[in-house]
Amino acid sequence: MILILGVTASGKGRLAFDLAQNLNAEIISIDSMKVYRRMDIGTAKPSKEAREKIKYHMLDIVEPSDSFSVGAFYEQAIEAISRIKARDKKIIASGGTALYIKALLYGLFDDAGTDESIRKELRGRIENEGSARLHMELSEIDAIAAERINPNDAKRIIRALEVYKITGKPISSFQKQWETHGTKFSARQNNQSWTIIGLRRDKAEESGRINQRVKKIIHNGLVDEVESLLREEKPLSRQARCAIGYSEIIDYLEGKTNLEEAVELIKKNTRKLAKGQRTWFKTFRDVHWLDIEPEEPHENILQRTQALLENITS
Q1: Which of 29, 89, 103, 192 would disulfide-bridge 58, Cβ 3.0–4.6 Å?
Q2: For the purposes of burial, counting CB atoms within 10 Å of the CB of 213, is it exposed (0-12), middle (13-18) or buried (19 or more)?
């Protein structure tokens, strides 16, 4: 099984598709927002044409009004792996949601439990004070977690503060359980064997690619997509609303910013996401990194990946 990781807009989705065609493989998406139906443009889902050629898993599996957790992802991804193996197909996983990648590689970690009274209190504060205010508090007690969590992501901010209130320890200290194989992993580890390929580009080039992607999704109709989602009978879940690209356009549609400001915020927040991904990926073990040159053709990246895989297995 092959897992391809990289920051947003690094080209991992295209490489996964090209490799899947060559290997007669199916693809598992590792993305916390591509799981939502009708959130297509802003999440840069594979095209209809690509999905007709290659079978994808973990796309369009929940409604935008629903919440979705790493535990739910883990369970469904393991089921998908079993189904793919039963068809004697190879497996390629690809994505940039580090928490989901960690779960897929190492299983679920033992967390701190929950306390509904604390959660209720924090939800009330979010509604009255805003998520940015609580994000500032989080940065004071757990700078590592605050760096990884978007200031608009109320759900994860609440969870991080809840863990601290329950245990007196930052949530990042629990997540460090994943950094070595000898610590407290869940008994539900999948014991799967993965070859991990990482795509790495110069930061300046990554920023340029992010800007081009944002320009593309706006041109492709992101504003119309968000308007359509907001008209649905059931409201967007907090998780869906805080997705980069959607949160900023919602603010624009609600008159809080103009479109130009919203687009610049999408670029800024996506660059921040990429920075957080780079930080996460440094903790991953046994990654075979490919340094991608500017404007390197897809065919060349595919050939280099195939040569790397042959070298690993020889």
Answers
A1: 29
A2: middle
